[in-house]
Amino acid sequence: MKKYILVLFLNTFLLLQFLVAHSQTVRLAVAGISHGHNAWILGRKNDTAVQLVGIFETNQVLVKKMMDKYHLAPSLFYNDLNKMLDEVKPDGVLGFGTTLQHLSVAEACAPKGIHVMVEKPMATTVADAENMVALANKHKILLLTNYETSWYPTTDKSFELTRDTSFMGKIRKVVVHDGHEGPKEIGVSSEFFSWLTDPVQNGGGALMDFGCYGANLMTLLMNGEMPLSVTAVTSQIKPHIYPKVEDEATIILKYPSAQCIIQASWNWPFARKDMAIYGSQGYIITKDNNNMKAKGKTGNEVEYKLTAQETKTYTSPFLYFADAIRNKITIPKNGTYSPENNLTVVKILEAAKKSAATGKTVYLQ
How far apart are CA 128 and CA 133, in angstroms? Predict the structure, then answer.
């Protein structure tokens, strides 16, 4: 009887732990708010899934601007990252500062067991990215990188179709287009512009800003396979606006049985994030987040107008982060958010910068 009661108690305890872990509001803090995408979290109203509990930022002019714009309480803001982490004890931290600052965010959070999600790309250099992954592994925290295309139903549907070799056959060529008219042209904030166009703080220009999307998606499609080589050509079409960095980049990734062409630009006539995937037996062409078309070996071309419900896509990166923290989901290895994928992305970007600078192909294998 005592043994039965003990087993019942343990099962009840484990069930309660499971229910608490899967129902609690996840406490998120923000490290840096100079990124132009800060509205995604600062403008978000607290809900049952996510609560904003602290914001670290040293630029007091920017703090005042964001405080007024989003009606945020002064008590949320800190000018010392470690003090914020110690006082508010977040479950996770979102990196919305410069790309160069991502390593320092991981260095502060990982030893405290605090999970991290940064904006794309993971880091400006391979050395920083490797240090971030090592910290995450050592301290057993999540280390995610957020891309807008990770929220796209068309991304999930494309990946699903490429897994069906009877439909697509083997991937042979992928062409990815990403970018917009340019940071100044679309009116980004002065704080964002100052570091986005800096070769150190951002690691480059359009190549880093938008080349990362294609590298991330191709790494997903190729199940984490590293390309054999990277060849890149960059241009400075508007040096009067972007004197320090390239505003145009084309990157070619060569694999044993496939190629990927990444066209990253601050010179498109309009914003775009789309791709074409060609297999040995079919193709997939995405137009935007919800619309795509595909043709397989035995069928006619099919047009899709997808919803997130159909593809089970998380359209909120914060809910995805929260559910990962609560162990409701497992981050797929080489998935778009994963550290494995994003370390590969940084290796591709660093090779692309070297190729563009030297005019030579860089071999990774």
Answer: 9
Mean pLDDT of 121-141: 98
Same domain, 213 and 156: yes
143 and 157 in a common domain: no
Q: What is the pLDDT of residues 168-200, one digit of tens each?
A: 999 999 999 999 999 999 999 999 999 999 999
Alpha carbon 255 to its chain centroid, in Å, reads: 23
Task: Summarize the confidence of residues 142-156 as an average pLDDT.
Answer: 97
Alpha-carbon span 147 to 319, nearest angstrom: 14
pLDDT at position 165? 83
User: Is position 331 within any domain?
Assistant: no
pTM of the model: 0.92
d(CA 273, CA 264): 10
Q: CA dist 106 to 31, 126, 196, 258, Å?
A: 10, 15, 20, 34
Residue 178 lies in a domain: yes
Looking at the structure, tell me whether residues 217 and 197 fall in a common domain: yes
Same domain, 59 and 175: no
DSSP secondary structure letter of residue 111: G
| Res 16 pLDDT > 80 | no
Backbone phi and psi for residue 196, each to the nearest 5 degrees, phi listed first = -65, -25
Domain count, the chain: 2
Task: Specify if 330 maps to a domain.
Answer: no
Tokens for 235, please give them.
């241009």
> Residue 39's domain spans which residues?
2-148
